[in-house]
């Protein structure tokens, strides 16, 4: 055996350590799959453990309850991204219209088009039955999301790009297309024939235009219409 080779026992030990380090991620991935497929109430922790290839006892070493497992899934896939998004907002160079377009597009790429978007449908369906996870979701997803959109609109107002608008309500106007797309992906779309299906990217473009047309500063209708920059001379009279 070459001197640089590890003894068989050491190799096995290394593999076990790597496997142990990977387990939380594997459990979270399995839990996300099952929560989206079956909902919170119908998902059992032994199913999650089996899909991740571990025992239920091993799962409880990392997550002491199904509620804590669900919270970890939400943090991993949604709530944990807000710091990153806030940093992107602070460093964004460009108009607020461009920032809002970027916000929609990035949200679709990172959340809407992924399996994590099914968490929204789960919450809509089961929020009233599970006050603990509902309160958690409000604090870690809904309120930070609303605050982020509010900051974007405030940026536009402060820069003179957007009209003064009631922020408490315009936040919901901006969020509504995102919520609709998540519900379409995981619920409504299943009821619509394929021939009538929508393309999410085109829908987002249309909604961005609608939102911006409502937000952008408009010309003051009471202002006088500027005179044309060119004038016309009267044609010369005959015989002149």
UniProtKB/TrEMBL annotation:
<feature type="domain" description="HTH tetR-type">
    <location>
        <begin position="21"/>
        <end position="81"/>
    </location>
</feature>
<feature type="region of interest" description="Disordered">
    <location>
        <begin position="1"/>
        <end position="23"/>
    </location>
</feature>
<feature type="DNA-binding region" description="H-T-H motif">
    <location>
        <begin position="44"/>
        <end position="63"/>
    </location>
</feature>
<dbReference type="InterPro" id="IPR011075">
    <property type="entry name" value="TetR_C"/>
</dbReference>
<dbReference type="InterPro" id="IPR036271">
    <property type="entry name" value="Tet_transcr_reg_TetR-rel_C_sf"/>
</dbReference>
<dbReference type="Pfam" id="PF16859">
    <property type="entry name" value="TetR_C_11"/>
</dbReference>
<keyword id="KW-0238">DNA-binding</keyword>
<dbReference type="InterPro" id="IPR009057">
    <property type="entry name" value="Homeodomain-like_sf"/>
</dbReference>
<dbReference type="InterPro" id="IPR050109">
    <property type="entry name" value="HTH-type_TetR-like_transc_reg"/>
</dbReference>
<protein>
    <submittedName>
        <fullName>TetR/AcrR family transcriptional regulator</fullName>
    </submittedName>
</protein>
<dbReference type="InterPro" id="IPR001647">
    <property type="entry name" value="HTH_TetR"/>
</dbReference>
<feature type="region of interest" description="Disordered">
    <location>
        <begin position="219"/>
        <end position="240"/>
    </location>
</feature>
<dbReference type="Pfam" id="PF00440">
    <property type="entry name" value="TetR_N"/>
</dbReference>
<keyword id="KW-0804">Transcription</keyword>
<feature type="compositionally biased region" description="Polar residues">
    <location>
        <begin position="230"/>
        <end position="240"/>
    </location>
</feature>
<keyword id="KW-0805">Transcription regulation</keyword>
């Amino acid at each position: 055996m070459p001197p640089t080779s590890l003894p068989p026992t050491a190799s096995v030990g290394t593999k076990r350590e790597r496997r142990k380090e990977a387990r939380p991620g594997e459990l979270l991935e399995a839990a996300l799959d099952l929560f989206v497929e079956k909902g919170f109430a119908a998902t059992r922790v032994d199913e999650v453990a089996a899909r991740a290839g571990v025992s239920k006892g091993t799962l409880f070493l990392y997550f002491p309850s199904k509620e804590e497992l669900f919270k970890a899934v939400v943090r991993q896939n949604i709530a944990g991204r807000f710091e990153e998004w806030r940093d992107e907002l602070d460093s964004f160079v460009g108009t607020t219209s461009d920032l809002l377009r970027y916000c929609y597009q990035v949200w679709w790429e990172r959340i809407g088009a992924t399996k994590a978007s099914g968490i929204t449908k789960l919450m809509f369906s089961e929020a009233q039955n599970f006050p603990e996870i509902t309160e958690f979701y409000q604090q870690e997803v809904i309120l930070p999301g609303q605050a982020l959109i509010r900051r974007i609109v405030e940026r536009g107002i402060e820069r003179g790009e957007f009209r003064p608008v009631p922020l408490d309500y315009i936040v919901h106007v901006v969020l509504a297309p995102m919520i609709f797309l998540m519900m379409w992906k995981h619920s409504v779309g299943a009821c619509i024939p394929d021939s009538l299906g929508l393309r999410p990217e085109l829908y987002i473009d249309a909604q961005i235009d609608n939102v911006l047309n409502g937000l952008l500063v408009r010309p003051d209708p009471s202002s006088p219409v500027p005179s044309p920059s060119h004038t016309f001379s009267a044609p010369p009279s005959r015989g002149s």
